[in-house]
Amino acid sequence: MNASEMQGRTDVNTLGEFGLIEHLTREFPLRQPSTIKGIGDDAAVIENGDLCTVVSTDMLVEGIHFDLAYTPLKHLGYKSVVVNLSDIYAMNAFPKQITVSIAISNRYSVEALDELYAGIRAACDAYNVDLVGGDTTSSPRGMTICITAIGQCEKDLIVYRNGAKKGDLICVTGDLGAAYLGLQMLEREQRIWQDNPDLQPDLEGQKYAIGRQLKPEARRDLVEVFRKNGLKPTSMIDISDGMASEIFHICKQSGVGALIEEEGVPINQEAQLLALKFKLDPITCALNGGEDYELLFTIDPKDTDKVRFLPDIYIAGEILDAADGIKLNTKGGKLHDLKAQGWVHF
Amino acid sequence: MNASEMQGRTDVNTLGEFGLIEHLTREFPLRQPSTIKGIGDDAAVIENGDLCTVVSTDMLVEGIHFDLAYTPLKHLGYKSVVVNLSDIYAMNAFPKQITVSIAISNRYSVEALDELYAGIRAACDAYNVDLVGGDTTSSPRGMTICITAIGQCEKDLIVYRNGAKKGDLICVTGDLGAAYLGLQMLEREQRIWQDNPDLQPDLEGQKYAIGRQLKPEARRDLVEVFRKNGLKPTSMIDISDGMASEIFHICKQSGVGALIEEEGVPINQEAQLLALKFKLDPITCALNGGEDYELLFTIDPKDTDKVRFLPDIYIAGEILDAADGIKLNTKGGKLHDLKAQGWVHF
User: Which residue, among B151, B173, B141, has the nearest Cα to B62 in the 3D structure?
Assistant: First the structure.
């Protein structure tokens, strides 16, 4: 223990993850003229002549972000890359390179690492990115993976979190909530298995949700469609912590409010049934579940026709004045304040 | 444990760090036209028009790379940044931005993290780099830090490990071995303290070595001098694992051999005395100690005058044909094969 810890001791949990990041990085000035965007978006943006370099990094820790009891190493490798690429796409940019750093205890064999890297390679193949560097080191216990994704984008095409304007339409891709429900399934089956190792897991009918949890995909396809259709969203973020939390980020950084229509929030049918099986509210799973890696973005209403007929894009609400707050209009026609994290087990 | 581990199990230690990296990354093709250099140098190089982006990443794990019993968190933060910047300078490039990811257990207070970030900030101030991103997450135990440094360089000024040619002079900056000896001091004092907590540490006369271990600096000054003098080394690497190991990297990648003159290897006087106190051979400490973060580089002999009169640069040998091997000419005039790792406790 360090001397400063003896004197005053504030538990890190008191600030929360975002609060802690804000606290720790509050006194770092940006001095390099090439730094266009520092902390506070899906990725940092660095100027290099006409093209910008877009950089995002994520750390995944065994026992916190993944449990190897039910996560195959190949899936873990794949997912670790995809979650980073998702951040680059969320800037309207295309990832080109990654670096992968891992710390591992000696309980991992070379064969186990081969599995992990087979997953990393599969993601590099699928998204056409190059592995260009990293670090491999030992750890006293467990595994930690840190991936940095590097993308490229024309400066005037980068989409930040702070560009949403009153009247903009809120769009969301794919469907939400399934990854969270997949995790519930896996954790439940693991508990059952621990209590009775002879039982075989019953994962039938939940393949979609489990696939969403174990092998998510990033929405490169839609960023490609944006380019093809000449559509530039006014703001964008990827859904890693849940749609509600991401709406709050967009509203806070853009200085606006929002109205979300429950009817517009896309939920897969299997996920809907699974939620009910777990006695969870499907809309709560969709809004707060997280790990969907879909894109949440806003568009100028004049661009409505550019998204209206596209598959897999749903208009889920509208940007309001900041004073109007952040609201959810339920299917029953009731207006609630949207909560960034509100698990309701009923 | 994963199924693949059950079948065949190869211990990760059998391959060594470099062997493991080579094994894991052997099947990753480079497909992006912007990837100029992938794995295998101090940093990756990415093309962006006229300027290249240079990227390097390092992971530091508590209990492996640092021991908080004798490493103040502020120093740890500073050093974590500097070791990454050193890799960027080793490409003849200038670092501009960093991302910092940390995983921490809840035994760290906000105040402890403030100390760590004060050190990170001090390094950003000293080297004029911007903190632009990162990740902050929990860990079940201990602390892991992963830093990615991003630099810029004109494409034709980047210096790789593979450009050394027969007849080139081998140069080294600063002095070597002191950081390793500083670590020996700190570890010895910790053992004494553990055996007898009432004893005060006796670190007098070892301030230089301990400073080199706890608060190393990267050689920005010399890369600036290279620019000013119009000097472009033919190859370059930073000394993190020891000069001998780095010479092997240069020779392997350039397809050459080398002759190192013991007389030309710079050793600080305090380090010399400290080595003898520890009954270690000073030249072995200098060649194999590591963590000096000096630069090892080769120059065309026609550039000799550009370095001859510069302070803090020493000519330590000459590049030979690959067939001549990698040799050390001792002060006594004996020719030995240089060993990349050869600790001799006499």
Answer: B141
- Euclidean distance between the first and final Cα of chain A, in Å? 43
Q: If you average pLDDT over every residue of chain B, what do you get?
A: 90
Question: Which of B36, B135, B153 is the best residue to mutate to test the A interface, defined by the most A CB atoms within 10 Å of its own CB?
Answer: B135
Q: Per the CB < 8 Å rule, is B48 touching A43? A: no
Q: How far is B119 from chain A (nearest CA, A)?
A: 12
B-chain residues within 8 Å CB-CB of A139? 61, 63-64, 144
Asked if residues A60 and A102 have their Cβ atoms less than 8 Å apart, the reply is no
**Per-residue confidence (pLDDT) for residue A7, from 0 to 100:** 55
Superfamily of domain A30-157: PurM-like, N-terminal domain (3.30.1330.10)
CA distance B327 to chain A (A): 29
Please report, for chain A, the start and end positions of each structural domain, with discontinuous segments joined by +.
30-157, 169-337
CB pair distance less than 8 Å for B132 and A102: no
Residue B8: per-residue pLDDT: 73
A144 with B37: Cβ contact below 8 A: no
**Chain B residues touching residue A19 (CB < 8 angstroms):** none
Burial class (CB in 10 A: 0-12, 13-18, 19+), A339: middle
Assign A247 to helix, strand or coil.
Answer: helix
Ranges of residues in chain A whose predicted pLDDT is under 70? 1-7, 201-205, 341-346
Q: What is the pLDDT of residues B249-267, one digit of tens each?
A: 999 999 999 999 999 999 9
pLDDT tens by residue, B85-142: 999 999 999 999 999 999 999 889 899 999 999 999 999 999 999 999 999 999 999 9
Report how far residue A313's alpha carbon sits from residue A306's, in angstroms, rounded to the nearest whole number.
11
Per the CB < 8 Å rule, is B133 touching A57?
Answer: yes
pLDDT band at B203 (very low <50, low <70, confident <90, very high): low
Q: Among residues A228, A217, A209, which one has the least CA distance to residue A310? A: A228
B49: pLDDT strictly greater than 90? no
Fold for domain B169-337?
Phosphoribosyl-aminoimidazole Synthetase; Chain A, domain 2 (3.90.650)
Which residues of chain A have a CB within 8 Å of the CB of B51?
48-49
Is pTM, for the whole model, over 0.95? no
CA-based nearest distance B272→chain A, Å:
31
Q: Where are the alpha helices (DSSP H) in chain B?
A: 3-7, 16-25, 73-89, 110-127, 178-195, 207-214, 220-228, 243-254, 269-277, 282-288, 304-308
Say which of A39, A62, A128 has its CB closest to residue B132. Answer: A39
Q: What is the ipTM of this complex?
A: 0.89
Q: Are A275 and A285 in contact (CB under 8 A)?
A: yes
CATH superfamily of domain region B14-157: PurM-like, N-terminal domain (3.30.1330.10)
Contact A97 B131 (CB under 8 A): no
